[in-house]
Amino acid sequence: MSLPVLSAPVVAEEDPLDLMDEIDALKKVKDATILAHFYVDGEIQDIADFTGDSLKLARDATRVTTSTIVFAGVHFMGESAKIMNPKKRVLIPDLLAGCSLADSCPPEQLAAFQDQLRSQGRDFQTVAYINTSAAVKSLCDWIVTSGNAREIIDRVPKDKEILFVPDQHLGRYLVEITGRKMILWPGSCMVHEIFSIQDLIRAKKNNPGSVVIAHPECPQNILEISDVIGGTEKMRQYVMALKEPTTFLVATEVAMIHPLTKAAPQHTYIPVPGIMASSGETCACNRCPHMARNTLQKVRDCLRDGRPEIEWRDYFQQARAVLDKSLLQ
Ligand code: SF4
Protein backbone atom coordinates (compact mmCIF):
# COMPACT_ATOMS: atom_id res chain seq x y z
CA MET A 1 0.00 0.00 0.00
CA SER A 2 1.48 3.37 -0.90
CA LEU A 3 1.35 6.08 1.72
CA PRO A 4 -0.18 9.47 0.85
CA VAL A 5 2.42 12.14 0.14
CA LEU A 6 2.14 14.96 2.67
CA SER A 7 3.08 18.39 1.48
CA ALA A 8 4.21 21.13 3.88
CA PRO A 9 1.37 23.44 4.95
CA VAL A 10 1.39 26.66 2.98
CA VAL A 11 1.76 29.65 5.30
CA ALA A 12 0.22 32.73 3.75
CA GLU A 13 2.54 35.74 3.66
CA GLU A 14 1.11 38.63 5.62
CA ASP A 15 0.97 42.05 3.99
CA PRO A 16 3.79 44.21 5.46
CA LEU A 17 1.54 47.30 5.44
CA ASP A 18 -1.16 45.47 7.43
CA LEU A 19 1.49 44.25 9.86
CA MET A 20 2.80 47.80 10.30
CA ASP A 21 -0.72 49.06 11.09
CA GLU A 22 -1.24 46.22 13.52
CA ILE A 23 2.08 46.94 15.26
CA ASP A 24 1.20 50.62 15.52
CA ALA A 25 -2.14 49.83 17.18
CA LEU A 26 -0.60 47.22 19.51
CA LYS A 27 2.09 49.66 20.60
CA LYS A 28 -0.58 51.94 22.04
CA VAL A 29 -2.64 49.19 23.65
CA LYS A 30 0.42 47.52 25.20
CA ASP A 31 2.15 50.79 26.18
CA ALA A 32 5.28 49.83 24.25
CA THR A 33 8.25 51.51 22.57
CA ILE A 34 10.17 49.86 19.73
CA LEU A 35 13.96 50.17 19.44
CA ALA A 36 15.58 48.85 16.26
CA HIS A 37 19.24 48.39 15.39
CA PHE A 38 20.55 49.68 12.04
CA TYR A 39 21.19 46.04 11.02
CA VAL A 40 17.55 44.86 11.09
CA ASP A 41 15.35 45.03 7.98
CA GLY A 42 14.48 48.54 6.80
CA GLU A 43 10.74 48.00 7.29
CA ILE A 44 11.32 47.29 11.01
CA GLN A 45 13.48 50.40 11.28
CA ASP A 46 10.62 52.35 9.70
CA ILE A 47 8.11 51.39 12.42
CA ALA A 48 10.58 51.86 15.30
CA ASP A 49 10.49 54.77 17.74
CA PHE A 50 14.27 54.78 18.04
CA THR A 51 16.87 53.48 15.59
CA GLY A 52 20.63 53.54 15.90
CA ASP A 53 23.83 51.77 16.79
CA SER A 54 24.43 49.96 20.07
CA LEU A 55 25.61 53.08 21.92
CA LYS A 56 22.71 55.27 20.85
CA LEU A 57 20.13 52.56 21.55
CA ALA A 58 21.57 51.80 25.00
CA ARG A 59 21.23 55.50 25.79
CA ASP A 60 17.77 55.72 24.17
CA ALA A 61 16.62 52.80 26.31
CA THR A 62 17.09 54.97 29.41
CA ARG A 63 14.71 57.61 27.98
CA VAL A 64 11.80 55.27 27.29
CA THR A 65 8.68 56.20 29.28
CA THR A 66 6.42 53.26 28.36
CA SER A 67 6.20 50.14 30.54
CA THR A 68 7.36 47.81 27.72
CA ILE A 69 10.35 47.91 25.37
CA VAL A 70 10.54 45.78 22.22
CA PHE A 71 14.15 45.48 21.13
CA ALA A 72 14.56 44.48 17.49
CA GLY A 73 18.21 43.46 17.43
CA VAL A 74 20.09 40.60 19.04
CA HIS A 75 20.04 39.05 22.51
CA PHE A 76 22.85 41.02 24.16
CA MET A 77 21.12 44.28 23.13
CA GLY A 78 17.89 43.17 24.79
CA GLU A 79 19.92 42.32 27.89
CA SER A 80 21.47 45.80 27.92
CA ALA A 81 18.01 47.40 27.62
CA LYS A 82 16.80 45.31 30.58
CA ILE A 83 19.90 46.12 32.63
CA MET A 84 19.23 49.84 32.10
CA ASN A 85 15.50 49.40 32.85
CA PRO A 86 15.10 46.73 35.52
CA LYS A 87 11.47 47.65 36.17
CA LYS A 88 10.36 47.54 32.53
CA ARG A 89 9.32 44.54 30.54
CA VAL A 90 11.84 44.00 27.72
CA LEU A 91 10.75 41.81 24.82
CA ILE A 92 12.78 40.63 21.85
CA PRO A 93 11.16 39.27 18.68
CA ASP A 94 13.32 36.11 18.58
CA LEU A 95 15.24 34.68 21.54
CA LEU A 96 17.53 32.79 19.15
CA ALA A 97 18.88 36.02 17.65
CA GLY A 98 22.38 35.73 19.13
CA CYS A 99 25.73 37.09 18.01
CA SER A 100 28.79 35.14 16.83
CA LEU A 101 31.06 37.79 18.32
CA ALA A 102 29.41 37.68 21.77
CA ASP A 103 29.47 33.86 21.63
CA SER A 104 33.22 33.88 20.96
CA CYS A 105 33.82 35.00 24.56
CA PRO A 106 32.02 32.70 27.03
CA PRO A 107 32.04 34.09 30.61
CA GLU A 108 33.64 30.98 32.15
CA GLN A 109 36.57 31.16 29.72
CA LEU A 110 37.03 34.87 30.33
CA ALA A 111 36.98 34.40 34.13
CA ALA A 112 39.56 31.59 33.85
CA PHE A 113 41.84 33.73 31.65
CA GLN A 114 41.56 36.71 34.03
CA ASP A 115 42.51 34.41 36.94
CA GLN A 116 45.50 33.15 34.98
CA LEU A 117 46.70 36.70 34.27
CA ARG A 118 46.26 37.68 37.95
CA SER A 119 48.18 34.62 39.09
CA GLN A 120 51.05 35.82 36.86
CA GLY A 121 51.00 39.16 38.69
CA ARG A 122 49.63 41.11 35.71
CA ASP A 123 47.94 44.39 36.68
CA PHE A 124 45.20 44.96 34.11
CA GLN A 125 41.69 46.21 33.48
CA THR A 126 39.26 44.42 31.19
CA VAL A 127 37.60 46.45 28.46
CA ALA A 128 34.73 44.77 26.64
CA TYR A 129 33.10 45.72 23.39
CA ILE A 130 29.35 46.04 23.95
CA ASN A 131 28.80 42.90 21.80
CA THR A 132 29.15 40.63 24.81
CA SER A 133 26.70 38.81 27.06
CA ALA A 134 25.62 40.45 30.32
CA ALA A 135 27.54 37.73 32.19
CA VAL A 136 30.75 38.84 30.43
CA LYS A 137 29.97 42.53 31.05
CA SER A 138 29.71 41.77 34.76
CA LEU A 139 33.35 40.53 34.69
CA CYS A 140 34.69 43.69 33.04
CA ASP A 141 35.79 47.17 34.12
CA TRP A 142 34.62 49.08 31.05
CA ILE A 143 32.25 48.64 28.11
CA VAL A 144 32.94 50.34 24.79
CA THR A 145 31.09 50.67 21.52
CA SER A 146 32.72 51.52 18.20
CA GLY A 147 31.38 55.05 18.85
CA ASN A 148 33.05 55.72 22.22
CA ALA A 149 35.97 53.27 22.39
CA ARG A 150 38.73 55.82 22.13
CA GLU A 151 37.29 58.04 24.86
CA ILE A 152 36.82 55.12 27.27
CA ILE A 153 40.27 53.67 26.66
CA ASP A 154 41.71 57.07 27.56
CA ARG A 155 40.04 56.62 30.96
CA VAL A 156 41.95 53.41 31.73
CA PRO A 157 44.90 54.40 34.01
CA LYS A 158 48.15 54.47 32.03
CA ASP A 159 49.90 52.11 34.47
CA LYS A 160 47.39 49.32 33.81
CA GLU A 161 47.51 46.76 31.03
CA ILE A 162 44.33 46.35 28.99
CA LEU A 163 42.65 43.05 28.26
CA PHE A 164 40.32 43.78 25.32
CA VAL A 165 37.46 41.37 24.53
CA PRO A 166 36.03 39.92 22.35
CA ASP A 167 36.79 41.45 18.92
CA GLN A 168 40.42 41.05 17.85
CA HIS A 169 39.97 43.27 14.77
CA LEU A 170 38.43 46.19 16.64
CA GLY A 171 41.07 45.65 19.33
CA ARG A 172 43.92 45.82 16.82
CA TYR A 173 42.41 49.00 15.33
CA LEU A 174 42.15 50.54 18.82
CA VAL A 175 45.78 49.67 19.58
CA GLU A 176 46.66 51.61 16.44
CA ILE A 177 44.61 54.72 17.19
CA THR A 178 45.19 54.92 20.96
CA GLY A 179 48.81 53.72 21.11
CA ARG A 180 47.92 51.52 24.13
CA LYS A 181 49.22 47.97 24.34
CA MET A 182 46.44 45.41 24.70
CA ILE A 183 46.01 41.72 25.27
CA LEU A 184 43.50 40.79 22.56
CA TRP A 185 40.85 38.10 22.89
CA PRO A 186 40.74 36.12 19.62
CA GLY A 187 37.04 36.68 18.79
CA SER A 188 35.47 38.06 15.62
CA CYS A 189 32.16 38.73 13.89
CA MET A 190 31.10 36.24 11.22
CA VAL A 191 29.72 39.04 9.02
CA HIS A 192 32.68 41.42 9.05
CA GLU A 193 35.22 38.62 8.80
CA ILE A 194 34.21 37.55 5.29
CA PHE A 195 34.92 40.63 3.17
CA SER A 196 37.37 39.76 0.43
CA ILE A 197 40.25 42.14 -0.09
CA GLN A 198 40.61 41.18 -3.78
CA ASP A 199 36.95 41.87 -4.43
CA LEU A 200 37.13 45.19 -2.64
CA ILE A 201 40.14 46.29 -4.71
CA ARG A 202 38.29 45.24 -7.88
CA ALA A 203 35.20 47.20 -6.80
CA LYS A 204 37.33 50.30 -6.21
CA LYS A 205 38.72 49.97 -9.75
CA ASN A 206 35.23 49.48 -11.19
CA ASN A 207 33.91 52.52 -9.36
CA PRO A 208 36.47 55.30 -9.85
CA GLY A 209 36.16 58.03 -7.24
CA SER A 210 34.26 55.78 -4.84
CA VAL A 211 34.81 56.04 -1.10
CA VAL A 212 35.25 52.89 1.01
CA ILE A 213 33.50 53.18 4.32
CA ALA A 214 34.20 50.29 6.73
CA HIS A 215 33.25 49.16 10.20
CA PRO A 216 36.20 48.66 12.58
CA GLU A 217 35.06 45.05 13.13
CA CYS A 218 36.48 44.35 9.63
CA PRO A 219 39.91 42.66 9.41
CA GLN A 220 43.03 44.82 9.18
CA ASN A 221 43.58 44.29 5.42
CA ILE A 222 40.12 45.77 4.70
CA LEU A 223 40.65 48.71 7.07
CA GLU A 224 44.02 49.46 5.46
CA ILE A 225 42.41 50.33 2.13
CA SER A 226 39.33 52.02 3.59
CA ASP A 227 38.86 55.78 3.40
CA VAL A 228 36.55 56.11 6.38
CA ILE A 229 36.51 53.79 9.42
CA GLY A 230 33.73 54.05 11.93
CA GLY A 231 30.74 52.51 13.61
CA THR A 232 27.31 52.76 12.03
CA GLU A 233 26.41 56.12 13.58
CA LYS A 234 29.72 57.63 12.45
CA MET A 235 29.02 56.31 8.93
CA ARG A 236 25.63 58.00 8.95
CA GLN A 237 27.05 61.32 10.15
CA TYR A 238 29.80 61.15 7.52
CA VAL A 239 27.52 60.61 4.51
CA MET A 240 25.10 63.30 5.73
CA ALA A 241 27.90 65.86 5.95
CA LEU A 242 28.93 65.22 2.31
CA LYS A 243 26.67 67.17 -0.07
CA GLU A 244 28.35 66.15 -3.37
CA PRO A 245 26.78 62.92 -4.75
CA THR A 246 29.33 60.17 -4.08
CA THR A 247 29.54 56.41 -4.53
CA PHE A 248 30.22 54.59 -1.26
CA LEU A 249 31.43 51.00 -1.01
CA VAL A 250 29.99 49.95 2.32
CA ALA A 251 31.84 47.27 4.30
CA THR A 252 29.39 46.35 7.02
CA GLU A 253 26.06 44.54 7.47
CA VAL A 254 23.99 45.15 4.34
CA ALA A 255 20.88 46.44 6.18
CA MET A 256 22.94 49.54 6.96
CA ILE A 257 22.25 50.72 3.40
CA HIS A 258 18.69 51.58 4.51
CA PRO A 259 19.51 54.22 7.15
CA LEU A 260 22.33 55.60 4.97
CA THR A 261 19.96 56.06 2.02
CA LYS A 262 17.37 57.68 4.28
CA ALA A 263 19.91 60.05 5.81
CA ALA A 264 21.67 61.03 2.56
CA PRO A 265 19.75 59.95 -0.58
CA GLN A 266 22.01 61.93 -2.90
CA HIS A 267 24.68 59.20 -2.75
CA THR A 268 24.98 55.70 -4.24
CA TYR A 269 25.67 52.89 -1.77
CA ILE A 270 27.15 49.57 -2.83
CA PRO A 271 27.39 46.79 -0.25
CA VAL A 272 30.89 45.39 -0.57
CA PRO A 273 30.38 41.66 -1.10
CA GLY A 274 27.04 42.17 -2.83
CA ILE A 275 28.59 43.11 -6.14
CA MET A 276 31.81 41.26 -5.85
CA ALA A 277 31.61 37.60 -5.16
CA SER A 278 34.53 36.26 -7.16
CA SER A 279 32.17 34.14 -9.22
CA GLY A 280 30.48 37.32 -10.43
CA GLU A 281 27.25 36.34 -8.70
CA THR A 282 25.62 38.44 -6.06
CA CYS A 283 26.31 37.35 -2.53
CA ALA A 284 24.28 37.81 0.65
CA CYS A 285 27.06 36.81 3.02
CA ASN A 286 27.17 40.31 4.52
CA ARG A 287 23.71 39.75 6.03
CA CYS A 288 23.84 38.89 9.71
CA PRO A 289 21.74 35.73 10.15
CA HIS A 290 20.95 36.75 13.74
CA MET A 291 19.69 40.21 12.85
CA ALA A 292 17.73 38.62 9.99
CA ARG A 293 15.71 36.63 12.54
CA ASN A 294 13.84 39.85 13.28
CA THR A 295 10.75 40.14 11.07
CA LEU A 296 7.67 42.36 11.16
CA GLN A 297 5.62 39.30 11.96
CA LYS A 298 7.74 38.43 15.01
CA VAL A 299 7.65 42.05 16.21
CA ARG A 300 3.86 41.91 16.02
CA ASP A 301 3.72 38.49 17.73
CA CYS A 302 5.93 39.47 20.64
CA LEU A 303 3.99 42.69 21.19
CA ARG A 304 0.70 40.80 21.07
CA ASP A 305 1.80 37.85 23.24
CA GLY A 306 4.14 39.65 25.65
CA ARG A 307 7.01 37.20 24.98
CA PRO A 308 9.81 36.24 24.55
CA GLU A 309 10.93 38.34 27.48
CA ILE A 310 14.42 39.08 28.84
CA GLU A 311 14.34 38.00 32.48
CA TRP A 312 16.40 39.76 35.17
CA ARG A 313 19.46 37.83 36.38
CA ASP A 314 21.57 38.44 39.52
CA TYR A 315 24.71 39.38 37.56
CA PHE A 316 22.78 42.15 35.72
CA GLN A 317 23.35 44.37 38.79
CA GLN A 318 27.16 44.28 38.37
CA ALA A 319 26.85 44.62 34.59
CA ARG A 320 24.70 47.71 35.19
CA ALA A 321 27.40 49.42 37.25
CA VAL A 322 29.90 48.88 34.40
CA LEU A 323 27.48 49.99 31.67
CA ASP A 324 26.45 53.01 33.69
CA LYS A 325 29.95 54.41 34.19
CA SER A 326 30.94 53.56 30.61
CA LEU A 327 27.96 54.78 28.59
CA LEU A 328 26.12 57.28 30.74
CA GLN A 329 28.77 59.18 32.72
S1 SF4 B 1 26.75 41.58 12.62
FE1 SF4 B 1 28.28 40.37 13.76
S2 SF4 B 1 28.60 41.51 15.64
FE2 SF4 B 1 26.66 42.25 14.76
S3 SF4 B 1 25.09 40.97 15.70
FE3 SF4 B 1 25.66 39.97 13.77
S4 SF4 B 1 27.23 38.46 14.38
FE4 SF4 B 1 27.05 39.94 16.06
Describe this structure in words.
The protein has 329 residues and is an alpha/beta fold. The protein has helices spanning 16-29, 42-47, 54-61, 75-84, 100-103, 107-119, 134-137, 149-153, 168-178, 197-206, 220-224, 232-241, 257-263, 296-305, 316-328; strands at 32-37, 50-52, 68-72, 89-91, 124-129, 142-144, 161-165, 182-184, 211-214, 228-229, 247-251, 268-271. The protein has a four-stranded parallel β-sheet with strand order 2-1-3-4, sandwiched between helices. Strands 6-5-7-8 form a four-stranded parallel β-sheet. Helix 9 (168-178) links the parallel strand 7 (161-165) and strand 8 (182-184). Helix 1 runs parallel beside helix 14 (296-305) and helix 4 (75-84) packs across helix 15. The protein is globular. Residues 274-280 have low confidence and may be disordered. It binds iron/sulfur cluster. Iron/sulfur cluster binds next to helix 5.
Q: Level of helix content?
A: 25-40%
How would you write the strand order of the largest sheet? 2-1-3-4
What is the element string, with H for helices and E for strands? HEHEHEHEHHEHEHEHEHEHEHEHEHH
CA radius of gyration is 21 Å
The overall strand count is 12
Question: Tally the helices: what do you get?
Answer: 15
Distance from first to last alpha carbon? 73 Å
Shape: globular
Q: Note the main sheet.
A: 4 strands, parallel
Contiguous runs where pLDDT drops below 50 for at least 5 residues? 274-280
The averaged pLDDT comes out at: 91
Overall SS class:
alpha/beta
How large is the share of residues in beta strands?
5-15%
Bound molecules: iron/sulfur cluster
